[in-house]
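seq/struct pair 1
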Amino acid sequence: MKKLMIIICSLFLCVALQAQNKDIVNLWEYSAPDAPYGYEKGTFLIKEKDGKLTGEVKIQEYTAAIKEIKKEKEGYTCSLYIDGQAIDITLKLKGKNELEGQATGGGMDIPFTCKPAKK
């Protein structure tokens, strides 16, 4: 009986985590007013493949791949390289239509927000 309860609880946990991932999977437009010139806005694509989150950031004509986006207790984290510089990103889902984030790298901490891209 204990094994059955553990299995059922595990299934509910997996379903809940998958539902959270569905809210973040999208093409987002980001805005970072404090970023250096040319990096203030772009798109942030978050996709799910085989149960893993990946993505890419597009700034003007430059695209940076994100190999893995990890679910954390308070949100999501990932890393990428832009112009040879490692950038660490933290994200928090704010409702269904907004993400808040922080990009850290090169001695800078840059806050940004994301809204779903207009199609």
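seq/struct pair 2
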Amino acid sequence: MKKSGSHTQLQTLIRSFDHFENQIFLTFDDGPNDHSTSRVLDVLKSRSVPATFFLVGQDVRPQLKLVQRLVSEGHQLGNHSWDHLYANYFSSETRLREWVGRVNQEFRDLQLPESVGFRPPAGVVTPPLVKALASLREPLILWNERFFDAVFQWGRARADRSARRLSGGSIVLLHDGQKAERIEAFCETLDHYITSLRARGFEFAALTREICLTESGF
């Protein structure tokens, strides 16, 4: 399996899978966002593509109807921390456990599906975070393909290069928390990317907690 070594032997950090030859896992970070997540969902629905959304916990309740739509359309939920603040990485293992666990409790309180696992903001991984996640039995999920689309406009040229080199089992990082001036072009590129990958014979799947627990070694 394509796994990177973790900072301890408590669990394995997930970047991709090697036992899904024809499946691509699209994942979206930083939502829910009232002006852009719905646009992304429209594209995915039009193409019948399931995906995984790593949500910022403090934004879930204010955007609950949007999150419920996400779930009803067959997408999976991931934990992207409570507040997306990098200062938390300098906290203790106990504080990090609370930072992650608070999102999962919010999902339970709102009767949402269980998180597939945790994706740290900016992909930062520290020994105390790894220990905190292991104590929660929370898979640690990163990616093996990204576009830095939270900062730069994502366009067809970069999407095409990715579609040509991607292999089955890849986890693709994208961001549904797009700025208003970039969301239209982002959605056009997303639609093109989906079409290009299907032309290569790939299918799309959402992550599940069961898959991620197994891959993590829990």
